[in-house]
Amino acid sequence: MRILIVTHAVKKNDGQGRVNYEIVKAALAAGHRVTLLASEAAPELLDHPRVRFVPIAPSRLPSRLLQYQMFAWRSGAWIRAHRDEFDIVHVNGFIAWARADVNAAHFVHDGWYRCGFFPFRLLRGFYQAYQVIYTLLNIVCEKWAFRHAEVIVPVSQRVASEVGALGIDASRMQVIHNGVDVDEFTPGPAERARFGLPEAPFMLLFAGDLRMSRKNLDTVLHALVATPANVHLAVAGILHNSPYPALVQSLGLSGRVHFTDMVMDMPALMRSVDAFVFPSRYEPMGLVLLEALSVGLPVITVRTAGGAEVITSGSGIVLDDPDDAEALTAAIVRLASDPAYARGLGQTARRVAATLSWQAMAERYLAVYAQVYAQRHAQAVPARATASVKL
């Protein structure tokens, strides 16, 4: 097949970019030809003889809203001019003013806006007004993009429900969960000293953006107050402009919460803790959750976190309410007080992750491509036969 993939970046150290990177690798291994319509692509992909890179220069317009619209107009114009050159056009959400065969839905702005935790208000200053306008415009654009695609691929059941709320029929959707590098994120020896962590305590890990309330570190900290003193928390994320160090101090947790700032070697940090806590108030599909499963960590998460749907009762604990600190405390205490139970969850978590490798994910996308391709050709045959009869 001749495949066109449209996205801002195709590279390993980027969430959506990594998904597309792995799809390209699998497509090339299967013998397909791939064109990348993007602003950035990994050099190792561009060196391949069956890869064509069509760069869309980043716009210099002020604001991400205008920059993304410019990308959408430029990429849409290019697609319309070259559509006949491709068997499959794969886009990612709203990224081009053009029809597509496959649209991968990684994030749905309407779901974020209506989830109950959207933090911005139109009349609370310029920045918040901009965020509201940006979100509302994206809702309109995403609805258009999903309606102009043959197949929509939500990255979780949560995202699928949000796409459905826009009026898209479930028959047009095929959920494909994001993947994880099961060879990089693998169980192994702890290196706590390397990260400045004490050796003795039961160590939880929280990883995420420390400037965003939706990641819900505040509930983790309030839950930690009610746990035994031998339960500690490692927090990985950029500390600049974060309110959480002050909250830690006010709660009297300074000796039990260890901020590591940004960590480049996340697999090593995950191998150095005992459990992963991820009570995000809103999450389409958390890659970090899959990474924790792959390392073999018992996971505590919540139903509002996309990805929780892959966790079985034997591989983690899924809570109902992200703001229920008492329930979170009870889950933490259960893991910390029962090593055999925690170990069993971790072992099952690793087996669950094995079904969610990047290769498995990419092969599912290729299967969708093949399905769309076959259906188009099946429809074309009767059309050609009818035309021959008329002649």
Automatic annotation (TrEMBL):
The keyword Transferase applies. Residues 14-183 form the Glycosyltransferase subfamily 4-like N-terminal domain. Residues 191-351 form the Glycosyl transferase family domain. GO terms for molecular function: glycosyltransferase activity. The keyword Transferase applies. Signal peptide: none annotated. It holds the Pfam family Glyco_transf_4. Keywords: Transferase. Transmembrane segments: none annotated. It comes from the Bacteria. InterPro entries: Glyco_trans_1, Glyco_trans_4-like_N. This is Glycosyltransferase family 4 protein. It comes from Paraburkholderia antibiotica. The lineage of its organism: Bacteria, Pseudomonadati, Pseudomonadota, Betaproteobacteria, Burkholderiales.
